[in-house]
Amino acid sequence: MENKEEETSKKKTLGRRKIPIEKISNKKSLQVAFSKRRGSLFKKASELSTLCGVQVAVIVESPAGKLYSFGSPSVDSVIDRFEKAREDGLNSCSEAHEEEKGVMEKSNWWWEDVFLENLGLEELEERMSDMQVLKNNLLKRIQDHDDLVMADSFLNL
Amino acid sequence: MENKEEETSKKKTLGRRKIPIEKISNKKSLQVAFSKRRGSLFKKASELSTLCGVQVAVIVESPAGKLYSFGSPSVDSVIDRFEKAREDGLNSCSEAHEEEKGVMEKSNWWWEDVFLENLGLEELEERMSDMQVLKNNLLKRIQDHDDLVMADSFLNL
DNA sequence: TCGGCTATGTATAAAGA
DNA sequence: TTCTTTATACATAGCCG
């Protein structure tokens, strides 16, 4: 009577859980967290800009290496001011952030379970486009290794 | 009986109030809100960087016109990448404040969970090679698709 | 400006659709 | 991946000192 929830005290979810601020190991979780937090960060930046009437610029790299940005009124205008201010010297304050990259786990599968069979033209072309980005990232990484020999042979991609 | 808190309504404060997202008129409040939110924004940026192992840069102007920034690993490195990426024109997506948002959020990124950060040269080249294969599959699929569409349109004629 | 406090608004981890 | 739901963690407006 009183304990209407007694045996059915099965909470549908655990609700938000506390997580340590360190690189998320689970790829799926990391991707989801990235998307949500990137959106929230941009939103916060937008609010700060509106509430205080100030310019703001945010640039973030995705786990895949793609760059996303938000700027009010625009990223470029803020960057210009930043660069200009840095020349003049003393009217900017910055906070650095040292961090160590966690060791990425092995993953030699990639698109093992990627099926192209059931995709529409639009999706296929979308992936073709995405692959272009991935290719650029790969090339960039390879060049970082200061060995362009092999890379050149793949430039025909 | 119902208002058990009536006489002892000793709530010290009203707690957080909801405020509209528009420029704060009261100067004092604006200054306070700016300081708090700037700190929180930087903190969020830092968390995103750590949790997802990605680079982040944030630049904000204070109500007084001073510039504050946060970057991981540094504002400059991220700006450099941003500028460089813009030259290439391909791998960056941005949102302007008053413009339409979320235009480029549509791609599925099936390899979003692919991390190139800590791979060795050999692994990178291996993936480059794999990508060659995938590209061919993609092109073939697109070709097949086009053929089907072509065939269909012919039938309809 | 800089913190501290409180009550409430908001962000978000997990899981499922 | 995107959207929804749920419960909880975290952010923060208004006040004080």
TrEMBL record, chains A, B:
Give an example GO cellular component term for this record. nucleus
- Classify the main location: nucleus
Q: Identify the keywords attached in UniProt to this record, alphabetized.
A: DNA-binding, Nucleus, Transcription, Transcription regulation
A Gene Ontology biological process in which this protein takes part is: positive regulation of transcription by RNA polymerase II
Q: Which GO terms describe its molecular function?
A: DNA-binding transcription factor activity, RNA polymerase II-specific; protein dimerization activity; RNA polymerase II cis-regulatory region sequence-specific DNA binding
Q: Where is the protein localized?
A: Nucleus
PROSITE patterns attached to this UniProt entry: MADS_BOX_2 (PS50066)
Q: Note the InterPro entries from the entry.
A: MEF2-like_N, TF_MADSbox, TF_MADSbox_sf
Occurrences of domain MADS-box (ranges): 14-74
Q: Highest taxon of the source?
A: Eukaryota
The protein here is known as Agamous-like MADS-box protein AGL61
Q: What is the lineage of its organism?
A: Eukaryota, Viridiplantae, Streptophyta, Embryophyta, Tracheophyta
